[in-house]
Specification:
Layout: H1 5-17, E1 20-23, E2 30-34, E3 40-44, E4 47-48, H2 53-59, H3 62-71, E5 79-83, H4 85-90, H5 97-107, E6 111-115, E7 125-127, H6 130-140, E8 146-151, E9 156-163, E10 166-174, E11 177-179, H7 186-200, H8 211-219, E12 233-235, E13 247-250, H9 257-269, E14 274-282, E15 291-298, H10 304-307, H11 311-330
Length: about 325
């Protein structure tokens, strides 16, 4: 089985950090970090012993995190949570799928719907009518008993990674996109992109049958069998998660200090030493903030797909995890 990025990277840099890494041998995703002073720390995938349990648990619930970020004055995305039919009945709530649709109409279509506690863009959809809404919501309720309905916003999607009051990485997340060559169908372009992911060591799996991709194509007057013109770009998903096939553009060197301060302050206010702050920005990330929103805050940001996007990014991730080990060593 292929070794997870975190496990592989921590083993590689362990000597530089003065620690020893012991992995569970079968799956190699859970490990122990042994420090020179005898202390032990543990990790599972990208979850490391840096953040307090309460803060991590809060940030894994998008609805609760959104509430507290908004309460502290951060620019959050308007939205609220709703429950699956079974869960709504169990907790005696009227906030079921039908109430969610009524709220979506009040909020103003299109809206974003997403599982409240899932990561990596699973189930995230932009819906524009009742049929799309119910299809997306029913899918989400197979993954999570709580769904978040939010206003759809326009802008550039960024992730800023913070460690101990310092921005250690920032990158723009660009949605899954294919570019036509005048000959290949959309399906062939997707398969070619999938092969390029495999060659680069990126484990992203693109599902051509994803209803979100097909709906996005229909809205552009295209199908899987369509042949985009040479140079024609087709955006195939509305969410920009790298795990869903998105690409990364590194902006660590150009991000404006004001955006860095926002991310650092938010991580501190949410009780996190290590965090991924996701922003939607209207304008240039290199210039002072004018209009932006906090999309989410992640307590254990996964960097696998970012690291696989190029040699430079792989080196950045390696140095990031070195800083993480040194931070753990300090306690």
């Amino acid at each position: 089985m292929k070794e997870a990025l975190v496990s592989r990277t921590l083993r590689k840099i362990a000597k530089r950090a003065g620690v020893k890494i012991h992995l569970e041998p079968e799956w190699r995703v859970v490990g122990q970090i042994a420090f020179k002073d005898g202390r032990k720390s543990y990790f599972r995938n990208s979850a490391l012993d840096l953040n307090p349990l309460g803060s991590s648990a809060l940030c894994s619930d998008k609805g609760y995190a959104n509430y507290f970020m908004g309460r502290m004055g951060y620019a959050t995305v308007p939205g609220t949570t709703f429950f699956s039919e079974k869960f709504a009945k169990a907790i005696k709530s009227k906030r079921n799928i039908h109430a969610a649709w009524r709220y979506a109409k009040e909020l103003g279509l299109p809206v974003i719907v997403k599982p409240n506690s899932r990561t990596q863009g699973v189930g995230v959809s932009k819906v524009r009518d009742k049929k799309e809404f119910y299809r997306a919501a029913k899918y989400i309720f197979t993954k999570d008993r709580v769904m978040l309905v939010q206003r759809a916003l326009m802008g550039q999607d960024y992730r800023i990674v913070v460690l101990d009051r310092e921005v250690i990485s920032a990158y723009e997340r660009i949605p899954l996109t294919v570019t036509g060559n005048g000959r290949s169908t959309v399906l062939q372009l997707l398969r070619s992109l999938q092969r390029s992911f495999v060659r680069s060591g990126r484990d992203t799996v693109i599902d051509p049958g994803d209803f979100r991709i097909r709906a996005k194509l229909r809205r552009q007057g295209m199908r899987m069998s369509s042949r985009p013109a040479k140079g024609q770009k087709l955006v195939l998903l509305d969410n920009a998660n790298l795990s869903a096939g998105g690409m990364a553009r590194d902006v660590t060197e150009i991000i404006h200090p004001a955006f860095q301060k926002i991310a650092v302050r938010l991580a501190k206010d949410m009780g996190l030493r290590y965090a991924g702050v996701d922003l939607m920005v209207q304008g240039d990330i290199a210039k002072p903030p004018r209009r932006y929103w906090i999309l989410e805050i992640n307590d254990s940001p996964g960097l696998d797909h970012y690291a696989a996007s190029g040699p430079k990014q792989a080196r950045i991730v390696e140095e990031m995890y070195l800083k993480v080990l040194l931070a753990l060593q300090k306690g």
